[in-house]
Amino acid sequence: MADAPPPDLKSGAGKRRGGTSGKVADFRYKRPAQPEHKRRDARPGSIAPLPAAMRARGPRRQAYAALDLGTNNCRLLIARPSGENFTVIDAFSRVVRLGEGLAASGRLSDVAMDRALAALHVCAEKLRRRNVHLARSVATEACRRAANGERFIERVREETGIVLDIISAQEEARLAVLGCHILLEDGKGPAVIFDIGGGSTELVLIEPGGPVPRILDWMSVPWGVVSLTDSVQGPDGTAEGRAARYAAMRDIVDKSFAPFARRIASYRKARDGIRLLGTSGTVTTLASLHLELPQYDRRAVDGLIVPSASMRNISTRLSTMSEAERGTLPCIGDDRANLVVAGCAILESILDIWPARELAVADRGIREGILRSLIAADAEGERSRVQLQRSRHDIGEGPSA
Predict the structure, then answer these.
(1) Entry pTM
(2) Looking at residue 393, what is its pLDDT?
(3) Which range among 64-73, 89-98, 191-200, 333-342 shows the weakest confidence by mean pLDDT?
(4) The pLDDT value given to residue 296
(5) What is the CATH number of the domain that holds 121?
(6) Total structural domains within the chain
(7) For position 373, what pLDDT does the model report?
(8) pLDDT band with cut points at 50, 70 and 90 for residue 86
(9) Residues 6 or more apart in contact with residue 314 via CB below 8 angstroms
(10) Would 375 be classed as within a structural domain?
(11) Number of Cα atoms under 13 Å in the Cβ half of residue 344
C-alpha cells in the first residue's frame, strides 16, 4: 500500500482499491462548556464552511448520513446543513469488535458478525426515522482483509437494508483528512494527520494552505489496536512481561512505518515547524487522561492541543499497568483496557517519525469526511442543474422536466 501514488484531495487523483469502493452514496434511505486549555475553536457538530452554492439555497430540511463500520466500532452520524456548518441531529456508536480473531483465522467470526449486525439494525432504524437525503455507509480494514468480508456485506444488505461500501485504505486516509484537518494548529509548516483504527493505521503528509489540504504522501499499515493486540502474545502477568510485550509492539510498528519515515524525513527540517493531528479512540482516550476527566467529554477533547511529552508519559504509564488496573481508570474502562496499549505503541512510533512538540486531538474523522463529501457533491449537482436550466432557457427550450 505504501508504494501506491498518494491521493490528491484537490484533483481527486489516486486509484482506489478494495471491494466496491467508488460509490458516491447509498440512496436507500432517501425519504419525502469547555476547560481552559490550549485548543482550536471546534464547535461540536460543526465542520468547515459548506460550499457557497449549498449556503445560497437557504434553509433545508434534508439530512445527510455517514456510517463507518470499522474493525472495532460501528459509528453513525446524521446531520443537517446549518449556515456555514452542519448540526448533528442523531448519532450512534457501539464497540462491536468485528475484527476479533481475524489475525489468526483470516475470517470474520460468527459471533463478531452478529455483534456488528445488532448495531447495524439500530443504525438502520435511525436512518429510517430521519429525513435522510443522502447517505454513505463504509466498511474498512476488517472487511478488506477477511476472506468472508464480501459475504458479510451481502448479509448486512439482506438483513438491514444498509449497503456497505468496502473502501480502500487510500480512500480511508482521504476521508479522515477531509473530516478533521480544520483542527490543525495554524502555521505554514508541513503536517501529518494520522488515524489509528482497529485494524489499520493511516498516516498522511499534507501540504498546508487552501481550504482543503493537498496530500503529498501517505501510508497505511495493517496494524490497529485490535490487529496489533491479537498479533502479539499477551503478557505473563509480570512487569517485565508487560515491558517486553510493549517493546515487541513498538518493534513491529516501527518496521512497518520505516518506509514512510524515510520518505518524509526531509520535511522534518521545515523552518516553520511541524504539526501533528491525530484522530482515533487512542488519542481521545489519552487526551481525557491528560485532562484528568472523570468521564469522557467530547467538547473538552475535540480540538485540544496536548504536549507530545504528556502523551508519551501517559503511554508509558499505561503500558506498565495490568489490564485490570487500566480498566479502573476513567475514560478507559473494560472496553479499552486491553486495546489501549497497542494504541499507545502505535502513537509513540508516530511521535518518533514526526516529533512535533504538540499533538492536536480530533474526535472526528471518516464520518465527517463522508458528510463533507456528500454535501459538496450535492452542491455541485445543484450548480450543474441550475446552469443547465439557465442554458435551456437562454436558447428557448424552457425549464427542464
Answers:
(1) 0.80
(2) 55
(3) 333-342
(4) 93
(5) 3.30.420.40
(6) 2
(7) 86
(8) confident
(9) 286, 289, 290, 344
(10) no
(11) 30
One domain, residues 197 and 248: yes
Position 322 in a domain: yes
Residues 269/9, Cβ–Cβ less than 8 Å: no
Which amino acid is residue 398, in one-letter code? G
Res. 364: pLDDT tops 90? yes
Cα 191 to Cα 1, 146, 180, 199, 217: the distances in Å are 21, 32, 13, 24, 11
- Cα separation of 218 and 223, whole Å? 15
Helices (H), 265-339: 281-291, 298-301, 308-320, 323-327, 333-337
211 shares a domain with 115? no
Q: Are residues 58 and 89 in the same domain?
A: yes
* Same domain membership, residue 343 and residue 199: yes
What would the mean pLDDT of 192-221 be, rounded to a whole number?
91
- 96 and 66 inside one domain: yes
50: confidence class by pLDDT, cuts 50, 70, 90: very low
Whether 153 and 199 share a structural domain: no
Q: Strand pairing of 275-279 and 358-362?
A: parallel
Residue with cell 458528510: 371
**C-alpha cell read off for 155:** 448479509
Give the domain extent around 269: 184-362
The answer, yes or no, to whether residue 362 has pLDDT greater than 50, is yes
In a domain, 52, yes or no: yes
Residue with cell 499534507: 206
286 and 228 in one domain? yes
Are 357 and 233 in the same domain? yes
Amino acid identity, residue 200?
S
Q: What is the DSSP letter of 25?
A: -
Lowest mean pLDDT among 80-89, 131-140, 186-195, 328-337: 80-89
| Exposure string for 115-139, b = 16+ CB within 10 A, e = fewer | bbbebbeebbebbeebebbbbbbbb
